[in-house]
Amino acid sequence: MLFGRKQKNPIKIADKGVVEWKYAACGYCSTGCSIEVGLNTDGKPVASRGVADADVNRGKLCLKGIFEHELFDSAGRGTEPKIREQWHQPWQSTSWDTALDKTHDEILRIQEKYGRDSFAIISTGQMLTEEFYTLGKLTRGLIGTNNYDGNTTLCMASAVSGYKRSFGSDGPPGCYEDFEHTDCLIAWGSNLPEQHPIIYWRMKEAQEKKNFTLIVVDPRVTMLAQNAHMHLPITPGTDVVLMNALMHVIIDEDLQDMAYIEANTNGFDELKAEVAKYDPVTAAKICGIDEDRIRHVARIFAKSESAMQIWTMGINQSTHGSDGVVGINNLALITGNIGKPGGTSLSITGQCNAMGTREWSSCSGLPNHRYLESAEDREEIAKFWNIDPEFFPKKRGMFQTDIYHAIESGQIKGLWLIATNPLTSLPNTARIRKAMEKLEFCVVQDCYEDTESAQYAHVYLPAGTWAEKEGVMTNTERRISVVKPLATPPGQAKPDLWVFNRMAERFNKNGNVTFPEKAPDIFLEMAEISKGRLADISGMDHDLIEKQRGIQWPYTEQQLKKGELPPQGGKRLYTEDATFRYPDGKAKLIPLPFIDNNEVPNEKFPIWLNTGRLIEHWHGRTKTGKIGDNNKYSPIPFIEINPDLAHELGIQRGEYVRLVSRRSDAVVMAQPTHRVAKNMVFLPFHFFDCANRLTLGLLDPHSRQPAYKQSAVRIERMEDQQEAARLSMEMRKF
Amino acid sequence: MFKVRDNEPDYALLNDPNSKVRNRYGTPIDTISESDELYGKSLNINGDAEVGENPNRYKQHGFFFTADNCIACHACEAACSEKNDNPAHIAFRSVGFVEGGTYPDYQRLNISMACNHCDDPVCLKGCPTRAYTKFAEYGAVLQDPDICFGCGYCTWVCPYNAPQLDPVKGQVSKCNMCVDRLEVGLKPACVSACLGKALDFGVIENIPEGREQARTEIPGFPTTDITHPNIRFQQTRTLQRDMVRVDSTALKYHRDDNEDKFKPVVDPKYGNKREWNLRKLRSREDPLVLFTLISQMVVGAFLLLFLGPMIGLEHLAPTAHSTTYTALLFGLLGIETYALYTSTMHLGKPQYFYRAFYNLRYSPVSREVASLAVFYNLLGLYTLLITFPFVLTDWIGLSTSFVDTIIHLTGWAAVIAGPVSLFFMHSIYRIKARPFWNHWQVLTSFYGNMLALGGLLVGYIYSCVLVIEGLETAAMINVLAWAILSGLLIEAYGLWRHAVDMKKQGGEGAASHYVQQTKFGKTYRARNIGLAISIVLSAGLFIGLPQAEIAMTVITLLAIVMLMTALVGRALFYVLVTPTTMPGAFFWHNKGFEEHARETGLADMPQVGVVPDSH
Fold it and tell me: What domains are defined for chain A?
């Protein structure tokens, strides 16, 4: 054996000089991982690691979390408020007071001139819950516009809508621990290994122990599909047909759990009548899954001791998004797979705090799943906030998608964008751009000043990011985790909560409404109005949440008083009979007729455009596009294209191509792979001025979520590759 | 010592209660015995004198990779880069993939690969500076970037792309097995970060719980013969017959049913169109193109100058045209100095050039540099002595005949040292992990160029002189043409056999040949035609041309054609090589994309992970 030199230098291994590890929940996806960020002697964040005793991630992190400490000083951070008269003028630096006064005055001006609802506010799933709650209070209680929504409409709206329709309330009933108990898992349009790597790891751990049947429904051969027992490569947008067919077989073969159905549901007969129309032979022709497979899957699912379903954007981002969620819930309900270990319908959420917006932002109603439509709810909150209940609208206003259509057609004149970037994230960029140009006043509040939407802003407010702030977030399994500040925002940037409170001061001159300054105090206020509700958090506070590495709701004051500590995990909803949130405690089985309104490929636009996420990127790439160890795995936009199609079109690996839809075009690099069918391309949506130039984004009738995943395009070869490369590079700054 | 948390999860803890005695290559797994003087010493990590208490400290460790499970989540790479504080363009561990099948019967096999801490570390042997050490502790092969002077030779010899040459820092660094974590009983950072239950680590040949195989083959992984790598695989799922690389390398891995393993074969992914791509002949190795050609020419020219008079070329005698002779000698010295300078500046840290001599025992680079240094010094000495013999005779008072003997001996020594140094120069390229180079053709090319370019240089200059002086050139040209012609023929024969062998051999060599015939197809053809023209012209000169004017024209033409052919040929030699390295991904570790990023300017953004070209 060789040992090399005799006189050795000391071995040098990088030592970042971490002297202190500080706790924070991850600010990327909804998995809800606990992170420890290492600070060096200068107090600078230099390292990240997973918290070993956190039940969610048990010491693990994905590649985004591992480099999350690099966010703080990444390029493009905003450091000072800016102002300008017209969006096409250069920015001028300004003071916070000037910027906030200007914003306040413009909101009032627009509301006075065009009506209260002519100013819209769009937030995000990126902020902390206390910030949502404060913004909700400010918007609903003081500004009073009803056109207030979050970008969760692009992501989770269908899940929310589907849960509400089926169970009478939002709130995913399951938890990650269900993987350890289940006998059968169907993943509908969910690519866990890429979208939620830590949840995938939890699933994989469980699967290696129990080897439950894994069935993946996805038009693309994702890693999850490839690793599944069965992969059903479904025709885009036809999930509801497959669900109906599965139910057809289950009911036809009498495999349903009648006792559960009778004790817990209404509407079985109507459902039965509807699914009767979807025999596997008929359904196979629509959804592209052969009749034998449909029968086989239905039998396995129904006969499993416990069976669970998860889904993500493959279901939600569709014109049948809400119906798809209801279909999943229907399947779960007729087989008695809700509220039991390993039996659930678990929506795998998107953003880190999408759940927090759902619960507390008041976007779709009032705090803690209260409805504007309910006089009782309005009364209760108005009293609690000390405002006139009549100030509340009696029906929720527009969703983000509709707000943009209203800007386009001139009903909405002013916009406050908070931590979201519609110019990248909304479908049909051309339409969005035109709408943005029309705004009389737009204020963008974001931690990045190079967010593309700021192009059309009149005021820019620099915000803090992630662990520069304090507050809680709720994850996919309803677990509330806390973020503590471990860095200060750069320059004059301020935490969003500070911005909301300063703005509130301007709208609350008589001081009728109280706005606590500190997140822990706001949390206690929220806890107060959560008492007795589904999402009861009255037993929690920031310190307990950190100590427990996150607590799943509900955890009540009574439990706390009894000395009952919150469990590590495994908390489920609807575990008792007839505890659903409809007045009679029963869930609804809703029949789902299928209308094919997708933009189906035709002769002119013969290819399905499927959009989706990559593991290395986060949404609009404002974060990950600047972190080399994330971005380098896909630094420019590309499509997955079937090699046979590429061959026919004369496209070589690594060449740029032009995608053309009925909306516009996009230049992308071609990666030939048999991951996609010959009549489909997959295009990651992260890149500015790319995927959403093409998408149609028809809206789901219930959730108003856009159908990002089903559009039709044609592909054109680009003769001048150098020009194409230049164009592709010019279109985005990072 | 690395700080262990009280609640470190089980998956991060090393767990090897038992181990085997010998590995599959027959090497003992115990690296040393308790009585060895290396036993019980501190690893001295960052100057920490403590000794780790890992009970398996003196056992060879290695990674275990369940290829079926890898999801290409990059967590291992991220954890590694985070721990080692690497910039985006450097990765001690990388995930690439191969794929096969037809939708939806499609499979992608992801491969996460770092250093395999081989039993026979070719990096260690190849490194001229002895920056590498295989430690008794864990059998870790560690490299010291402070010693490294950035020649990049280890990156050539390693079949797994483990050593990472950082053009910014001008040095190599690589996976350190996280020995700091091993010392305290923790698995490496990458393993602890794995989200697919794919990557594991322990004493080599131990099969982790829940796994049953310990293979050494998966598609894309080079043969273990080269280095005896310490990595084991599980890969049970039936793969497609063809698993294709998605990077720009024209390779796929084809299942050989008889041997139950996948072998690299050419994947003509860019069709069969012949192109020029002259610009793409430029590479980081440009200085080596000049260095090797010049050195070969200088050695050849000196051989002819020194030996010429002995075989009847009286014009070449030092006294025949003494000014030309000395001028030519100084010229040779000058261009060789330039050659050495340019190859030294090609190092990441040229100021440490002297470290090139540190590994004469194993490294062909050290041997080449040393032998070339000997030749260069002898050439210098010979030049000085023959130009200024009076220094020894008149000033020191040595006898003329004694000085003549010294000059003669110096000359003979240089005549031996020159070809020897070219032999070592050739050994540098006989790398198993680079089949396109690992062929005797390198030697015929180097010696062929020595004769041809040396003959050309001497012939051209002396012809000019003779013509100016109005003397007869035919006799001299005839002999020198013989040297040129034989050099060209040796080179041509080598190239022909090389092409045939590469094609026959398949794998990476054939992939290089495929690129040679397509991407550089026209260039390659032009080079071959250039060679053929050179042969015809020099044969013409050999047969004898009546008039001096015609001869001069032919020689000038020959010089132009030969120099261009030699430059293009040598540039092709460097750009064409396809290493037996791990498959890349579509962007990351894809040479094609890196090239594209540099050409278009994408590489100017550091977060693209490609460093812009410095030349």
Answer: 20-71 (2.20.25.90), 82-152+356-515 (3.40.50.740), 173-347 (3.40.228.10), 607-730 (2.40.40.20)
- Specify which residues B201 forms β-bridges with: B63
> Within its chain, how far is the Cα of A212 from the centroid?
27
- Select from B75, B592, B597 the Cβ nearest to the Cβ of A197: B75
Domains and CATH numbers, chain B: 10-241 (3.30.70.20), 278-576 (1.20.1630)
Select from B73, B102, B111 the residue whose CB has the most chain A CBs within 10 Å, as the one to mutate to test that interface: B73
Q: How far is B139 from chain A (nearest CA, A)?
A: 9
- The whole-angstrom separation of Cα A98 and Cα A84 is 11
- The letter for the amino acid at A585 is G
* Binary contact (B196, A201; C-beta < 8 A): yes
Distance CA B1, CA B8 (A): 15
**DSSP letters along A668-732, please?**
EEEEE-TTS-TTEEEEES-STTSHHHH---PBPTTT--B-TT-EEEEEEE-S-HHHHHHHHHHT-
Give the CA distances from residue A424 to residues A282, A452, A609, B599, in Å, rounded to whole numbers and listed in that order.
39, 7, 17, 27
Mutate to test the interface with A, among B1, B10, B59, B74 (most CBs of A within 10 A): B74
Half-sphere exposure of B612 (CA within 13 A, CB side): 10
Taking the model in full, what pTM does it have?
A: 0.95
For tokens 């759990």, name the residue.
A257
Kindly state the tokens that stand for B160. 């797994």
Q: DSSP character for A143? A: I
User: For A61, which residue in chain B has the nearest alpha carbon?
Assistant: B193
CA–CA dist A483, A56 (Å, integer):
15
pLDDT tens digit sequence for B213-257: 999 999 999 999 999 999 999 999 999 999 999 999 999 999 999
Banded pLDDT at B545 (limits 50, 70, 90): low
Element housing A310 (H / E): strand A307-311
Which of residues B313 and A487 earns the better pLDDT score? A487
Along chain A (734 residues), what's the average pLDDT of each consecutive run of 10 residues? Answer: 68 95 95 96 96 97 97 95 97 98 98 98 96 97 96 93 96 96 97 96 96 97 96 97 98 98 98 98 98 98 98 95 98 97 95 93 93 96 97 96 96 97 95 96 97 96 97 96 96 98 96 96 97 96 96 96 94 96 97 94 97 95 96 97 97 97 97 97 96 95 95 97 96 90
3-state secondary structure of B420: helix
Closest Cα in chain B, distance from residue A194 (Å): 7
A642, A674 Cβ separation under 8 angstroms: yes
Phi, psi of B506 (to 5 degrees): 70, -170
* The pLDDT value given to residue A5: 64
| ipTM here | 0.96
Tell me the H-state helices in B317-362: 322-345
